[in-house]
Amino acid sequence: MKNALGREIPEQIGERELRPFKGAFATTPTAQKASRPQKTVKPGENKVLSSIEEAIEATGLSDGMTISFHHSFRNGDLLVNQALDACARMGLKDLRLFPTALFPVHEPLIEHIKNGVVTRIEGSMNGPVGAFVSQGGKLKAPGVLRSHGGRWRAVEAGDVKIDVAFIAAPQADPYGNANGIKGKTPCGPITFCTVDAMYAEKTVVVTNDLVPYPAYPFEIQQGWTDYIVVVNEIGDPESIASGTLMITRSPTRLKIARLASEAVRASGYLVDGFNFQGGAGGISLAATKFVGEEMAKLGIVGGFAMGGGTRLLVDILHQGLVRVILDGQAFDTAAIESLREDQNHVIMDPGQYANYDSRGCSTYMLDAAFLGATEVDLDFNVNVNTHSDGQLLHGIGGHQDVASGAKMTVITIPTLRGRLPVIVDSVTTVTTPGEVIDVIVTERGIAVNPRRENLKERFLAAGLPVRELKEIKKEANRLTRPPRKPIFGDEVIALIEWRDGTVIDTVRKVIGWE
Amino acid sequence: MKNALGREIPEQIGERELRPFKGAFATTPTAQKASRPQKTVKPGENKVLSSIEEAIEATGLSDGMTISFHHSFRNGDLLVNQALDACARMGLKDLRLFPTALFPVHEPLIEHIKNGVVTRIEGSMNGPVGAFVSQGGKLKAPGVLRSHGGRWRAVEAGDVKIDVAFIAAPQADPYGNANGIKGKTPCGPITFCTVDAMYAEKTVVVTNDLVPYPAYPFEIQQGWTDYIVVVNEIGDPESIASGTLMITRSPTRLKIARLASEAVRASGYLVDGFNFQGGAGGISLAATKFVGEEMAKLGIVGGFAMGGGTRLLVDILHQGLVRVILDGQAFDTAAIESLREDQNHVIMDPGQYANYDSRGCSTYMLDAAFLGATEVDLDFNVNVNTHSDGQLLHGIGGHQDVASGAKMTVITIPTLRGRLPVIVDSVTTVTTPGEVIDVIVTERGIAVNPRRENLKERFLAAGLPVRELKEIKKEANRLTRPPRKPIFGDEVIALIEWRDGTVIDTVRKVIGWE
Questions:
Q1: What angle do CA B224, B228, B230 make, to 5 degrees?
Q2: Which pLDDT score is estimated for A243?
Q3: Which CATH entry fits the domain spanning B243-486: 3.40.1080.10, 3.70.10.10, 3.50.50.60, 3.40.50.10260?
């Protein structure tokens, strides 16, 4: 069947009937959420176990079950590999892995896929695992990629039932309260897996810093935690940045960031109470910096800035340019420190941030947001998952959630990467539909979605270089070399879910290149 | 049928089959929790309504439905009366009222009961409403009293389905985030109704201080809130103390408090990491003060102190005698201010504090707790709900939850109130079973539950006046006048639930006095 964007979607995959994407806000959920397991414990019962193996034993984890992890350590995570190694040693097979995201550090997982320990993955696959899945297709079922809010929704809706949630916790107490902002190796908020802890049949907190009761803030609550395991290492906080955190020095990219900030200034949204999302890519960071400078110049006090938290946002908070930062994850140690110290730097879970099946997302209160793309097309559709060579290399993150919510969603992209074009006729994979994209800013000018005629007029009045997207594309194409076009097989290796649980696109196996 | 304490319990009331109390920790829940309704909203939708009537209309509230409220304004609450008046004006009938607690300020509710607007009440009835129900029996079904943790459990378990939760919020934003510690008239944490907000079909936040987005901390989240109503007044914060907050000046009561603190010192629990609950009655407050002084003298640093928060606990925190205060409610303005300012004064919801159907309660980590009683009996059973005249005048509060959890639960009581005896052969109503009561401290000596021989030995070694409870009773009885004994009718006017959802006792209609 074809979805509303004309993308071909299978009717069914395994036992799962797919719902095709119908539009960014076309779904109205009516069913009840899934129910959570009842649990109890008596006073004095010990919940602390001495190894991951012991926890696997205690939880009754067995073949075919689903295990989950959070990604707050990003490329510094050590728990996924430890836990899967333990599963492999214990002879477990056919597990479904449900991480919030995988990173290059999780490359050892490929062996576990080859050996049948892991046969399904639902979660973002950044880097080698994604490439392996794209080419190898060794999984028993297609991967499922969801946005931050989409994943939360899926757990609450019962689309994914977690058997055992393993939660890397920089600080925990012997009763299972845990947080990510304190401890020996803090990684920032760990509320991505709060929903896992609440809904999983069994929840295991794994920490390298067990402190006397109570560990707080209560990102994870004792009432949800079945077991606590103390290990030597859970993650390397130096690696959480994953190379996303340098403000770009490229003159082209700085130009894009400057244009993006000028677009915000011209939009009419940059007034007292202005709410914005920073983003963590090089261009987004620079644009955030420039917007902060504009706010200071204009004497504006914003409402909230939304993270991933960075030193840049913390500086903006400390300068009094916003009242509060809302953060679901931290991208550097300055943000983590601020989360500990600043009462106006507040942890926000993805349910609050971005859950479609709720009475409101923080993203819906955004005035402006800067987001990236691997590709955009002439319908303003955005791809952040695959490269033009067809390979699945990135997760969705909050892209869909933020783009859906912000009054002005700005995609900041260079027109060329190497000599590959970024603006194409039709994106390889649709992550986020054009209907929620307002502005595309490139070094060759600013394209405005025809749905936003009002913005276009404001930009023109401000003397900004507004151009048609197809003109920008045409100009860029003169400098590109033809991209290495992928040849796709029939096999669907991943589903891209829209945040409401419908399927917006599929990713097919790459069987070669033209 | 008879429950484990020999109390007669009806098998069924209306359509509800009752489960008899079997022991403090005899229940092992196995079912799933109730599921929550799916909700959604589109960006830009307005959720702010201009009156409670409009909210009643919008929620579809109709005859026979269940509405809920929190009690964080205690005797200063203005919302329950406003909302019920609105329901009455709109012709609604047969409502089930599900407050966390009612206070003397809610006396106007009696008219609504007489007029059939309210026909059932599940929640604590402190004062006139309780007395009216005891004597009048005008409700269609018995009231149900639950502990703080028991109420949370009941909602999660699906025992009570809330149609509309009305949440008095000292501060809220237009998207429905709300808290109780800021705003024009802060009342302290409002997390008693967090579970209502999550599980209710419709949630209405009623505030007198609507602030720009976002209002935080997120005690109530936007995602749960259907509507926000702005009114002039929701409560009088000066009244939250309800007269519970003066340290006693009675020499007899000070003696009890002193003995209780000496018992704690002698217990062996008063070492580094000592965790305790303060309580808010006059004797408990004094005992808490004395324990704080002991800790300072001994150079001990405790783990957590558990509220209701008071200036006394805040002082103990500021003196460095405990690492953190965990608070579900505030009993004075000093506690509210500290909740805003002190990072180590942490809001705790009743789910975390006391939910039996969870993998751990904060009360289970208590070393010592001071609690009150209207009566105790020779089996160490405690009554906090009825007076010896049979009238239902008080709620359970956290009594059951704390007593179940604390390693040493100390009941502090005078042996006489006026000339009425407090120690009786068998309590009028069992609120909390003797199996979880460790020590009863009176001005005539300390009685130790035979289950706690070890404590008795320690007290004797410390030279404390340990006596048999029946000896204390006998001595006191010489000074009492015979209490006005109630004559009970057959009609059960209230069920006292144990925190696991079983029925520990019933309260019958008082039809006269001997």
A1: 155
A2: 45
A3: 3.40.1080.10
Which segments of A384-474 are extended strands (E)?
Answer: 408-412, 416-417, 420-421, 423-424, 439-442, 445-448
Name, in order, each residue with C-beta under 8 angstroms of A96's C-beta and a sequence gap of 6 or more.
A64, A65, A66, A67, A118, A119, A120, A121, A122
Q: Which amino acid does the sequence have at A328?
A: G
Q: What order of strands is seen across the sheet that includes strand B143-145?
A: B143-145, B486-497, B503-513
Answer for the pair A114, A140: CB distance below 8 angstroms, yes or no: no
ipTM of the predicted structure? Answer: 0.96
Indicate the burial class of B43 (C-beta count within 10 angstroms; 0-12, 13-18, 19 or more): middle
The three-state secondary structure class of A243 is coil
> Which amino acid belongs to residue A149?
G
For the stretch A323-380, pLDDT in tens is 999 999 999 999 999 999 999 999 999 999 999 999 999 999 999 999 999 999 999 9
pLDDT of residue A241: 58
Pick the CATH number of B49-122+160-239 from 3.40.1080.10, 3.10.20.340, 3.30.70.100, 2.60.15.10: 3.40.1080.10
C-alpha to C-alpha distance for B186 and B238, rounded to whole angstroms: 10
Q: For chain A, what are the domain ranges?
A: 49-122+160-239, 243-486
Of B38, B44, B221, the CB nearest to A352: B221
Nearest CB neighbour to B360, from listed A223, A348, A364: A223
Residue A166 pLDDT > 70: yes
Q: Which two tokens stand for residue A318?
A: 């400390």
Question: Looking at A94-210, which runs of residues are DSSP E strands?
Answer: 95-99, 101-102, 118-121, 124-125, 143-145, 164-169, 171-172, 178-179, 202-207
DSSP per-residue string spanning B9-75 = --SEETTEEP-B---TT-----SBPPPPBP----TT---EES-HHHHHHHHT--TT-EEEE--TTGG
* Cβ–Cβ < 8 Å for A142, A13: yes
Q: Are residues A225 and B359, on separate chains, in Cβ contact within 8 Å? A: yes
The answer to whether the CB atoms of A361 and B216 lie below 8 A apart is no
CB pair distance less than 8 Å for A212 and B303: yes
The string of pLDDT tens digits covering residues A96-123 is 999 999 999 999 999 999 999 999 999 9
Q: Tell me if domain B49-122+160-239 and domain B243-486 are identical in fold.
A: yes
Number of cross-chain residue pairs from A and B with Cβ atoms under 8 Å apart: 170
| Angle CA A497–A502–A504, to nearest 5 | 55
Helix axes B311-318, B282-298, angle to 10 degrees: 10
Q: Does residue A418 carry a pLDDT above 60?
A: yes
Dist CA A202 CA A56 (whole Å) = 10
Helix (H) or strand (E) holding B229: strand B227-230
Residue from the list A216, A224, A360 with its beta carbon closest to the beta carbon of B41:
A360
Strand partners, B446: B441, B466
CB-CB under 8 Å, B360 with A225: yes
> Which residues in chain B are contacts of A343 at CB distance < 8 A?
343
Alpha helices in B79-193 (DSSP H): 79-89, 109-114, 128-136, 148-157
- Report the C-alpha gap between B425 and B442 in whole angstroms: 16
Biggest CA-to-CA distance, chain A = 72
Q: Which residues of chain B have pLDDT under 50?
A: 243
- Residues whose CB is less than 8 angstroms from the CB of residue B337 and which lie 6 or more positions away in sequence, other chains included: none
What's the CA angle centered on A397, arms A239 and B178, to 5 degrees? 100
Which amino acid is located at B103 in the chain? Answer: F
State both tokens at A487: 């040849």
